[in-house]
Amino acid sequence: MNKISLGEFEEIVLLTVAVLYDEAYGVAIKAEIEQRLDRKVSVGALQAALHRMEDKGLLNSWLGEATQVRGGKRKRYFRVTPYGQSVLAYVRETRNQLWDAIPNIAFKFS
Amino acid sequence: MIAPKPQWSLRLLRWYCHPDFEEDISGDLEELFQQRQQQVGQYKARWLLLRDVLVLCRPEIIGLPHFTYPTNHTAMFRNYFILTWRSLKKSRLYAFINILSLAIAMAVVILIAVFVSYDLSFDEYPPNDGHIYRHTVELVGSDWNSAKSFPGLGPYLLDHYGQVEDFTRIYATPETGSIVTPFPGQAKKFIERQAYYADVNVFDFFSLPLLQGNPDRLLNESNQVMLSATLAEKYFGADWRDKNLLGHTLQLTNFGNKDTKLYTLSGIFQKRPNSHFRPDMILSMSSLPKERWDALDQFNWVEAFTYLQLQPDTDVLLFKNAIDSLLHEITWGKSWLFDCKLQKLSDIHHISHYRDDMEAGADIRLNYFLIGVAIFIMICAWVNFVNMSIAKSLKRAKEVGVRKTLGANRGSIVLQFLLEGFWLNLLSGLLAIMIALLSFPLLDHHGMMIHTSWPLQLWVYGAPQLLPFVLFMAGMILTGTLISGMYPALVLSSYRPISVLRGLQIVQRGRLGLRHSLLTVQFVISALLMIGIFAATSQLNYMLNKDLGFEKEQKLVISTAVNDINSVDNYLLHAQNLKKELQHIQGVKAISTASSVPGLLPGGDLILCRIEKVQLGDPTLEDIFNEGPTPGMVVDAGFFDFYDIELVAGRGFSPETFNDAKLTNQHLLVNEQFAVLNGFDPVESIVGTMVYVQQNKEDGEVFREPREIIGVVENHHQYSVKEAFQPMVFSPEGTTLSAIHFDKKIPHAGSMRYFSLSIPLGENPNQQIKHLINEVETLWQQHLPELAFEYFFLDEAFNRQYEIEIRISKIFSVFGALSIFISCLGLFGLSSYLIQQRTKEIGIRKVLGASLQHLFSLLSTNYIKLVAISSLMAIPIAWWGIHQWLDNYAFRIELQWWFFALPLLALLLIALCTISFRVISAATANPVDSLRYE
């Protein structure tokens, strides 16, 4: 897994998709991130990240049913693939290892 | 400020977004928009929507597959362009030479392409489907021929041969021209020489765009006339289109005063410049005088240009043979055989050089020659380009090294230099278009081009078109890029970064060899053209100045149409009186009358007859002299003195000959060629030979007149110097050589058709001629009021047949000079570059005491050697080519050694001058300047 690089924003988006599970589509993801992390997310950055990760195989997507809201346009739902999950796990694992490797003395500041 | 509508923003998204993602993203955006409407209001939500759409415009969303590359490419191309521009700016001289020579060469190619496409487009336009042929005749066994045919042939063929779908005939008005009075009753008159009678269906064969008139009722009644737009403007003013001209009445006189009639204007057409048929006036065939109209289904004589529309599957050769045997059957009692030719309509312009044709025609070889010149010049320019790029390559070597170190592969470096070549070619192409446009009026002026509203178009299917021209230009620029850019690109991209960056000298030997061989090619081409120019000009001068065997200077010839003469009672009597009075006009030195004049082209009515030797003892035994007919003239007593044609043997026509009618009818003179062709050697031995002058009548009846050959005169060029001498016979005035007169036993009226006046021109020739013509006109009106006359100067008329040669010589000179100029530009650039590289060497040599001469020879020997080698290589090719060309001429210059030496010497001098500019400035420079900077 040495080729994998996951950007910080990508990681957040990927995790949020997992959080939302069946309801992970553009507006919902954006709202969830904005609410939980208290930061602004632009539609452009979000969509670009989603598609980039789908190309990499971390996500897959499908189109939902048409509804009356949104001008009759279908939603695109995203879900984390097993590969995406393993990447997330890998990232978390490496962070944990790093945390564990920090000597106690390192964070003693006074 | 009005906020953007949501639909508008979404449309923008739809435009760039990848179609797979468009639906859900725009759905998301709409949902967000609705939320925001409630939170922040309609106005702000709209702006936020637009912002989102703009921010969404990213490669992932647009759906480009490899989003990192395109931007990179654009940047690289921009960088290539900048580098091209910088390197051009850095070496202005080379850039200038490169672009200038390319631009001049391309301009030449453009002009030649336009000219050649125009020349090849003759008679190509619809309705010509490739199956229209013109029927022309040639008299077997002589070089007499005609572009016209028997008027009865067309109808006969249509009736009897399935291969013929249709025919049309065009009947020329007399060469004296058609006298037009546009407003009958007014005195204003015009003489038009391009007037033709034509069958009703002439427009089915020639599409002459009709500007006014009803297409169904153009020439279907007698006394109808159509005018070209040019004539309409001449007669009715520039605003003729606004006037209602159809139905206007004009008065025309064609075949003598008896044929003066009123004609109704039934249409106005546009002439086609690229057709051999360029009429100014078309008259309905049925307007012909009655006796000519009656003879339209006859085979009396060749009088009408005849065009046949053949079935597509006709075997033209077989059909021609069928017509040949038909002609042998039905014309002229089988004793004079006519062969025919079927000329494809679109070929007529190039293959037809009949003396009585509608236009002089052109030589297809001129086109091949021009294409060759264009290729030569283009090669010269490309050679310059390659040479300059290689010379400059050292300067660019470091750049290539750095690029390669930074990861450029060979392909991208080749691409860079090809692109550089492309920019230069493109720039030169644009410049070339400007040069061509500027030089176009000049060529137009010399009659080499035809003027159109936008001259730079190629002629396809008879009409000028822009698209082929654009394609041609694009093709030329791309070919040029590949040919001139490929080699430098490959050389430059082959440099190894390590050696160029370490500053090692790149081995240049091989490339120097290539540069030198390219220079040699250039100078071979220049030498060829130079020798060609010299030879063509010499041949032209030779022809223009050759002794023709008769005196053509300051001779005014007055004549009238032969058919009209026969319609006047007692023409000879009137003519004799006129002759006496003309002699007394002030300024006329001498006068002579004859049935023709020497050196006369169309309408130079020579009388064709057969000469038979009288066999003593057995008069029935025929021994025909001079296989085929012999041309003859009836001349007056002063004719030979007048034209300065000398008697070689025997005696001439003495005054007694003319006084004694019995003697007159017995004498005949021949020229040397006649004697030689019939085996009399020496020519004197023919004197005293008894012969019959034999003529056949239309019904086959044969007439013989006994004559004695009393003398031999020197040869003269009856036609152009291009042709061999003709055998000829001369009969004294008062006798006849032609058939109808044998029959009726009357003197031949045509024997006094041409009045030649010798007029030594004074200080004010124009005034003198005007005055003279006025006097002639007055006298003519007194004696022969029924006839129209025309006049011309013999030398002008004679020299008109050298138009092709004059044109070739002009073109040769212009293009030859251009190619030499381009080669010298290249030589200049290359030598100055190499000298610049040797600046230090020269400085050191000077310090050590080298003299100017020494330096000069050191620097220029190489190039002089190159030019000399090129010249040597050019000689055999030039010798062969010029021989081929000169073989077309019966009388030609002999090739001398100085034909090659002089032009080559000139070339060498030009080359030397070119180099010495730089050499001298380098050699005289102060060595301090060149050595200081280190």
In a few lines, what is going on in this structure?
The complex is a heterodimer of chains A (110) and B (934). With 110 residues, chain A is mainly α.
Can you offer a commentary on this structure?
The complex is a heterodimer of chains A (110) and B (934). Chain A has 110 residues and is mainly α. Chain A has one domain (8-102): Orthogonal Bundle (Arc Repressor Mutant, subunit A). Chain A has helices at residues 8-20, 26-37, 43-56, 82-101; strands spanning 59-63, 76-80. Chain A has a two-stranded antiparallel ribbon with strand order 1-2. In chain A, helix 1 crosses helix 2. The longest helix of chain A has 20 residues, at 82-101. The mean pLDDT of chain A is 86. Chain B has 934 residues and is an alpha+beta fold. In chain B, strands 1, 2, 3, 4, 5, 6, 7, 8, 9, 10, 11, 12 and 13 form a 13-stranded mixed beta sheet that branches. Chain B starts with 5 loop residues before the first helix and ends with a helix.
